[in-house]
Protein: Thiamine-phosphate synthase
Amino acid sequence: MSLIRDLADQIIQAHRSNDLCIPIPAFSINSPPPRIDNEAAADHYELAGALAAIEMGFIESDAKVLGKAWSRMTLHDGGFDPFKWPSRPEQFDLLPWTRNMNPNAFKECPKRLGLYGVMPDADWVKRMVDAEIPTVQLRFKSEDRYKIRRQIKESVKAVESSKTLLFINDYWEEAIDAEAYGVHLGQEDLETADLEKIRGAGLRLGLSTHGYSELVIADRFCPSYIAMGAIFPTNLKKMPTAPQGLGRLYQYAKLMSHYPLVAIGGIDQDSIHAVSKSGVGSVAVVRAITQAKDPKAAVKHLQELMQA
Ligand SMILES: Cc1ncc(COP(=O)(O)OP(=O)(O)O)c(N)n1
Ligand SMILES: Cc1nc(C(=O)O)sc1CCOP(=O)(O)O
Ligand SMILES: [Mg+2]
Structure:
């Protein structure tokens, strides 16, 4: 057996039972089998870490990031220990400075945003303010700019003179015009949004991530918070990657603990306590509130479970 195969097997064996493994995604023309690049790798540990990650069900881009982190951890520790797992920012090339020292950092938001309701329209935002939820997002999807502006204005008005913090999903220009507290963007929005404008206007920025490689990308933008999903299956939208599960969430939360963190995706009253225990300061939900018999009571109950 080759050395790399042996090291990879040791990593897989050591972490088999801690919920980091998920089934390997099915390969197709659009999603071809992963390539682990022998030539670019620094050493056996990088190759073994990447190979183990692929077999634990990580997508190719995450496996590459993990391989590098395994190599750096092993070099730094002066030896290979399969029972460890990379979880230090420098192993992942995260920014070496704190937000205070970073001129490009987005405006700070509370480390613990608490229960975070992601709501489909302004009427739901109003209901959340009435329920005294700490953080709410307007996730209104439309092509109609007039409707979008109206929904955002109504939402901003709804949180006025309340303690609820309002983030606007997607429509950053309208959010700036309406002087919202912050915007939430997905990774694909980073290619088109004018981040300078959002930062210059003093709005907070939340960014979505779905694994190690997206966490590393998000860190480059020094956003106000980082959202990590989908933790569990959700039918609210088509997800490009499999649910991450609690094991991975716990590792992501450890690695990114210097950021305000939000967990999202399929979280309900049965799982919210375990999700909070990961160290994230906020848990975002849609259906756990919108499909509850009594949404206001659900907000209260979910907050109690987070703190229990
Ligand atoms: C708190 C939070 N996390 C993640 C998302 C997803 O945002 P995005 O990737 O932009 O996808 P859409 O919500 O636009 O479908 C979110 N909205 N909120
Ligand atoms: C809007 C959204 N974004 C996700 C992500 O992982 O980026 S998961 C998600 C839906 C969350 O809805 P529910 O709480 O009903 O599962
Ligand atoms: Mg979006």
Q: What stands out?
A: The chain has a mean pLDDT of 94. The beta strands are 114-119, 135-138, 165-169, 182-185, 204-209, 225-228, 261-264, 282-285. Residues 102 and 156 are 29 Å apart (CA to CA).
